[in-house]
Records
---
Amino acid sequence: MTIEKLKIYFAHNLEGLYPSEEIESFFFLLVEKHLNFSKVDTVLKKQYEVSERITQQFTEALNRLQHFEPIQYVLGKTEFYGLPFKVTPATLIPRPETEELVDWIIVNCNKNHRALLDIGTGSGCIAIALAKNLPAVKVSAMDISEEALKVASENAIYNKVTVNFSKKDILGTSTLPQKYDVIISNPPYVRNSEKEMMQKNVLDFEPASALFVEDDNPLLFYSKIAKLAKNYLNPNGFLFFEINEYLSKEVIQLLERESFSEIELKQDFFGKDRMIKCTLGE
Ligand SMILES: C[S@@+](CC[C@H](N)C(=O)[O-])C[C@H]1O[C@@H](n2cnc3c(N)ncnc32)[C@H](O)[C@@H]1O
């Protein structure tokens, strides 16, 4: 089959399930993955004969897209902060608002900040983007999921940075291996009751353990990490959190109770309360 015919077959099978521009964008991404053709190549080489094996791979991708599996999982990769990341169903797909958090951290880091810790690293996106952009800093990262840590380690190699990954259940510990200058976390923060507002492809495919918390204790990660940070943050160090847009007031109150100061709330690109920075002072 030619690329031209494959494109018609692909679009026909996804018609009505996605907007046509999205279907076209999926097609170009899959051609790039399986044939290593750029968008321009794809348009210019429309009479190129696609092998049986590649056609089969497109049929498999179609089947997954018809079930609304996120394109990032179908491709097995995504981009975060301009860097390539492998993603699997064991890892959350990194979100653009988390790129904004990384930006904020980079702006706030100075030469005195030498040791960083990312708690709940998932694909390793925050830790790796920071290691890449702050080469003088020693970056460590933790997650409860062994499978996620495996992907994160591959991503560190892929991006040519060193990150010290370790497996830890942050809720079940009262110690950290050392003190840090910056502690960051984008922990699970979506309340179970918010599930009905979420898209089906997130609910059906992304790891629930990375997203959801019980409605009666939605800040358990924030509370635990703030308590740990009180003992493991160096003087003048920073604690950064990504937060649930509906719970900013509650997170601020929690941090005040734990004696954090200079608490700063920041909105994301969509104007939603999305991240917090604070310190313990000197
Ligand atoms: C919202 S995801 C964030 C992933 C990644 N940092 C990002 O920004 O895309 C939360 C992460 O916390 C991890 N996690 C959940 N419970 C945990 C626990 N008790 N201890 C450590 N990590 C945990 C999940 O496996 C998941 O990777």
Note: The two ends are 68 Å apart (CA to CA).
---
Amino acid sequence: ARSFARPLSSITEVAESIADGDYSKRLPLAGKDEIGKLAQAFNRMAESSQLRMESIDTDRNNLLAVLAGMIEGVVAVDKKERVVHINEAAEGILGITAASSAGKPLWEVTRLVDVCQAVSGTLKNASEITNELRIPGSPADRVVEIQSSPIRDSEGNLAGAVVVLHDISELERLETMRRDFIANVSHELKTPITAIRGLVETLISDRRMEPEKHERFLQKIANQSMRLSSIVTDLLTISRLESGKSLERKLFDLRRAVVNPVRSLTATGENRGVKMEIDIPNDPVSIVGDEESLCEAVNNLLDNGLKYSREGGDVFVRLYKKEETVVIEVEDTGAGIEKRDQQRIFERFYRVDKARSRELGGTGLGLSIVKHIAISHGGSVFVESAPGQGSTFRIVLPLGNH
Ligand SMILES: Nc1ncnc2c1ncn2[C@@H]1O[C@H](COP(=O)(O)OP(=O)(O)OP(=O)(O)O)[C@@H](O)[C@H]1O
Ligand SMILES: [Mg+2]
């Protein structure tokens, strides 16, 4: 009886450790009798259980890794709304931790009512629910899209709900920017169109207008149409720059991007009584980039320098190398710019004095174009100015391979 009892007790021992989750123990194979066969079958069972458990573990870890790596927040709850799983992104969005929320009802661990309502709704009607959640914050609110779906067990019965949280704040921000941009563009286009319509209607109805007045009206129409055309040109430039395709990367002498705009604006300068002085190196300054765009950038800076100067003022244009960069500098002796406006003038449509700038034919797009061109060449643009002290704009571009 002894030789019979020992193998049985070791089988019991191994069975117990399997029950406790340890699948590694095996029975010594002894004899070809009934007990020996039982031990063999037992070992095979232990082996296949171990493999199966390992594969379940791997699957589970893969699933957890996928959930942890997701940008979307994921929260799973059981039928009683108790948190079963919550991934890292959801922890961030809901402001809770997995450790403190596991097993507790969702409504107890988060104050975000919309999320709890979506879950209750899904569990109540066994249906999908989508809505949007706004989490107040600074500088901007966070906007999160909530999608709650039922979880079913293998028999198709409702077992819980899974909520996917998708942070759409960035999309919202872009959408707001797009809307503002369209509103601004429409407004800027509408102003000259309205003016032209008014002037033309007066001309049509007043056939007996004195010649001088007639002439003045036509001049105004000409000015407003030029304005329209320059707005559209600026918009096309922006869209060309933003599409990013059309920028050339050719080796050229950057001095050309200084000399050509100065040449084309000389007459304008003379009309306004503003002198332009130019200071560039004697040797070529080779750079890889888009000559036309860089000409346009300098042209915009010069145009501002001339536009926002008093008669008798000066505009200095300089080109020089500094360390690993090359600097294009446009300095004027004009009205200068207050500190608080200095960052904003690079925004689209921003003008310090709207009325005055519009009178001068400005749309507020010039500097945003300059900034865009500088950035697309791996450079940047800066302003140094004080009211009454003139302004200096600098485009700084990296030299060499970029
Ligand atoms: N050199 C300068 N001196 C003083 N103010 C300036 C100067 N350059 C720009 N500004 C201010 O910055 C604003 C924005 O300039 P920006 O070139 O972007 O637009 P704009 O000149 O008004 O119009 P656009 O260039 O599109 O015709 C101007 O309206 C003006 O108020
Ligand atoms: Mg301008």
Note: The pocket of adenosine-5'-triphosphate (ligand 1) is lined by residues 234, 300, 304-305, 308, 332, 334-335, 337, 345, 350-353, 357, 362-368, 391 (CB under 6 Å).
